[in-house]
Amino acid sequence: HVADPGDLYADEVQHWRVVQKEKISDCIKETNDYIREIKKLKASIPESHPDTKKSAEEGLKDLFDKLKKLERKESDYLAEIRSLDSRLKKLNSAQDLTDCPTCFSKDIDKKFLAAEIKSLNFSRNVAQRAHSSVTKVVAGFYKRIEKSKEKLEHLSSLENTKERLLSKIESLRRSVEKNKRTKESLEKEENPFLARIEKEREKQANIQEKLARRKEEAKAVLSDYPYYLFWTEAFGDGGIKSFVFDLICGTLTSRANYY
After folding, report:
1. For residues 183 and 177, what is the distance between their CA atoms, to the nearest angstrom?
2. Which residue has the higher pLDDT, 106 or 164?
3. What does the pLDDT look like over 53-106, one tens digit per residue?
């Protein structure tokens, strides 16, 4: 018999509380570590750039489209210069001739030839300046494209870094929420040994109730004991039985002696 059933599991109850407290403490510590890591990662997220990766890609595509048109124009000017050079070569070689190379019966018009050469030279100079100008613009576009590529690469790196950090932050946030739920669950968890103690107390209460009933029954039996004792003695060897037996035996003996 134990006066308090709680004494049966006192050590277990205390040990469970200590372990539970350690679990909650570890959960809180881990959650705080996650929160600190989230703050650290947030601080390391690159600042938003005014240009986005998409806008940089569109800008680079636009530069390539313009460059393609300029290179086509540059090629056209170069073809024109070569054509003019070819014509000038023929006309210059024709200045030393006395007869027209296409119609030998006529003399070459020197004045017309000189005027034509002058006109072609002027056209060639115009084409040459235009070609040089376009070439410079093309060179400038190549530099702009290189810078745009570097910028796009930088923006891609920033976006990749940002996405990676945000993904890690989101994962840590889920861990924080999970730990919060775990902590709440641990705080609400009941000590299993308290239920055992309660069960033992119920058993003890039932036993005490049965003992009380038996005591009452025993008390009732004891209250009738004098009566039982009286009748036991009355019908015992020293009671009525003895009196009747002695009386009848004497009478019977007397009668037997008479006969």
Report:
1. 10
2. 164
3. 788 888 889 999 999 999 999 999 999 999 999 988 888 887 665 555 555 445
Look up tokens 């947030």; give the residue.
42
Query: 3-state SS string over 227-239?
Result: HHHHHHHHCCCCC
Question: How crowded is residue 121: how many other Cβ atoms within 10 Å of its Cβ?
Answer: 14
Residue 228: partners with Cβ closer than 8 Å, 6 or more residues away: none
Task: Name every residue whose Cβ is closer than 8 Å to that of residue 168 and which is 6 or more positions away in sequence.
Answer: 41
Which residue is it, tokens 């840590």? 172
What distances in angstroms separate CA 100 from CA 84, 97, 197, 204, one per listed residue?
20, 7, 132, 141
Q: Per-residue pLDDT tens for 112-137?
A: 888 888 999 999 999 999 999 999 99
Global pTM? 0.53
Cβ atoms within 10 Å, residue 5? 17
Packing angle, helices 10-43 and 192-223, rounded to 10: 160
Specify the long-range contacts of residues 188-191, CB closer than 8 Å, at least 24 apart. 189/20, 191/13, 191/16, 191/17, 191/20
Is pLDDT of 51 > 80?
no
Structure token pair of residue 243:
């009196």
